[in-house]
Amino acid sequence: MEYQYWNPEIEKMKRPELEALQLEKLKTAVGWALRTPFYKERLRKAGITGSGDIKSLADLRRIPYTTKNDLRDAFPYGLLSISRDDVVRLHASSGTTGTPTTIYFSREDLKRWAGYVARCIYGTGCTKTDVFQNMITYGLFTGGLGFHSGGEEVGMMVIPSGSGNTTRQFKLMQDFGTTVVHATPSFLLHVESIMRAEGVSRDSIRLRKAFAGAEPYSEDTRKRIEELLKIDVYNSYGLSEMNGPGVAFECQLKNGLHLWEDGYIGEIIDPETLEPLKDGETGELVLTCLCREATPILRYRTRDLSSFYTEPCACGRTHRRLRRITGRTDDMLIINGVNVFPSQIEEVIMAMKEVGNNYLIVLDKEGVLDRLVIKVEAGPSIFTDDARQMNALKEKIRKTLQASITINPRVELHESGSLPVSEGKAKRVQDNRPKDL
Ligand code: ADP
Ligand code: ZN
To answer: What is the pLDDT of residues 106-145, one digit of tens each?
Structure first.
């Protein structure tokens, strides 16, 4: 296979050189950070008063972690390191787990960011001949404008369709010959369901690739989207605190996400002891941004769970690969004392061919006990008016889930397309249990 690289010199740089580059950039980033009220105070306490105090990459460990709460406390300008007049844009996180946080960009920051996103897009084999439909929310969310700029940087024709309005999405694909889309995996599954329901023929669209991210999804979900839509799906990871998309992305081998280590330093830590873990061990991803002057963020605790591959990738890139992010440390549900991650439930459901494209996890209290209800859409091969077939499928889902998570759920089957679809990130868990019990 012929691989293409946006910036071969950097992407295939030998590790010692790459680490030397990281050290230089880390010094610069610490210099930026020291200009903000928040880090000036934080770093001074850690004995760092100038970028000269960073002498090796090991000195990174002297820098205290930054948390989402720190960002909230520093709101609005505690983390701004340049003059307000030199800020050209702001973005905010989606606020999935609470108050959104705000990030500022200088003109140079935006250029650098677009470069990282372009590197991701180009690395999947796209070129300027592609037509790119960006089916994700625009606005404060970074996924819209982030991919938009990256797509333009590659030179593709970018269609800023935004998310939602599925019928219009098909029309755009047909009218302009869209070859690549970017969307959440849940929206891609929804698009496929609607395509089938509306009788849109696969031959009427030229789609061949999708970038899917912004929310966790399993390998089975990727395969399902690839098989149903007959496209290649690449996993895209990013977060607003690290600019947005363009942090880590799959190459054409689709086996782990290359973290762009000339732009971000990645560490995996034990979320309990906060001690660094070795490559291969699973823990919380901590990221340091080396490419944004306006809002420098050092050693940010993402709360995302992952691990680094220990083997280099056959594509020739030297930047380490992260395993698919399975969820966040704070996604974990405690159901009658048992710890369950929503991704464990997704894995079971999406691996079953008879199951449709959408599901919902509902938690209630029944007396003193928690009750887990899994609402699942039936797939096209299941007739919702055949009670025997429905019961058999419900029983199969129940048994397989119980074997996997040790909790006995109640399973409800719903008609295809009847469960709620979100235009942004999917809301898979509806927890109705009283909070203070
Ligand atoms: P919020 O934290 O409010 O959702 P963002 O919009 O910045 O804010 O989203 C970033 C988060 O989205 C990441 O920290 C991660 O939890 C999730 N995410 C993004 N891309 C992926 C992906 N490919 N796989 C799993 N989770 C992802
Ligand atoms: Zn690779």
So the answer is: 999 999 999 999 999 999 999 999 999 999 999 999 999 9
User: In the chain, what are the domains?
Assistant: 1-330 (3.40.50.12780), 333-431 (3.30.300.30)
Please report which ligand is nearest the Cα atom of 72: 1
Structure tokens at 420: 């709620």
Whether the Cβ atoms of residue 320 and residue 309 lie closer than 8 Å to each other: yes
- The answer to whether 390 touches 354, Cβ cutoff 8 Å, is no
Task: Note whether 252 and 1 are within 8 A (CB).
Answer: yes
Global pTM value: 0.94
Structure confidence by residue, pLDDT tens digits, 46-86: 999 999 999 999 999 999 999 999 999 999 999 999 999 99
Distance CA 398, CA 403 (A): 9
Question: Does the C-beta of 94 come closer than 6 Å to ligand 1?
Answer: yes
CB of 331 within 6 A of ligand 1: the answer is: no
Going by the DSSP 8-state scheme, the letter that residue 240 receives in this structure is G
Instruction: Look at residues 375, 367, 384 and name the one whose alpha carbon lies nearest to residue 409.
Output: 375
Residue 312 DSSP symbol = P
Q: Cβ(342) to ligand 1 under 6 A?
A: no
